[in-house]
Amino acid sequence: MKSLLTTLLVLFSLTTFAQSNGLAGDYNRTLGTAGDHFIEYKLTLHQDGTFVFHSYSKIKNGFPPEVNKYGKGKWTAKDNVITFSSNKQEDFDEKYTLDFNTSKARFITKNPRDKSDRIIQTKITFVESEIPWMQRLDMFKI
Q1: What is the structure's pLDDT at 21?
Q2: What is the pTM of this model?
Q3: Does the record's keyword annotation contain Signal (predicted)?
């Protein structure tokens, strides 16, 4: 009985780990060119359920010309929907100012049953966020 329970517990743990393993990693999106207007977004989803986000923009004749914005917190996934949360005491300071509390993103990848030759790049798309420029932002897995 103990060995059966242990086996089931190990299988459940491996299944849970395998599901988050596909989501964890680095995501990136670059818009514009380095000469005129350049915007870059970087998101890292860690295996331990934490994330770090960095937004860099360099706008020609902008004020200020270069802007860096950071955010961090925790993420959870259920049915290919990633929910982000930030704790005001732990995740906010002078550097990390972006609030991801109401942000949700959809994980998109090619279905393993799809045997066609079409290429679907793994990405996440933000579907909800109180950060206005995050709405409908696609970030591709590196």
Answers
A1: 57
A2: 0.78
A3: yes
Q: Please, how many CA atoms are within 13 Å of residue 75, restricted to the half-sphere of its CB?
A: 29
Query: Residue with structure tokens 């906010």?
Result: 92
Q: In what helix (H) or strand (E) does residue 30 lie, and over which residues does it extend?
A: strand 25-32
Residue 132, preceding bond cis, omega within 30 degrees? no
Q: What is the pLDDT of residue 118?
A: 85
Angle at 74 between CA 72 and CA 76, to 5 degrees: 140
Most confident of 11-15, 24-28, 89-93: 24-28
CA 57, 58, 64, 69: dihedral to nearest 10 degrees? Answer: 20
Tokens read off for 86: 């930030």
Which CATH number goes with the domain that contains 41? 2.40.128.300
| Domain extent at residue 21 | 2-141
Q: How far apart are CA 125 and CA 43, in angstroms?
A: 12
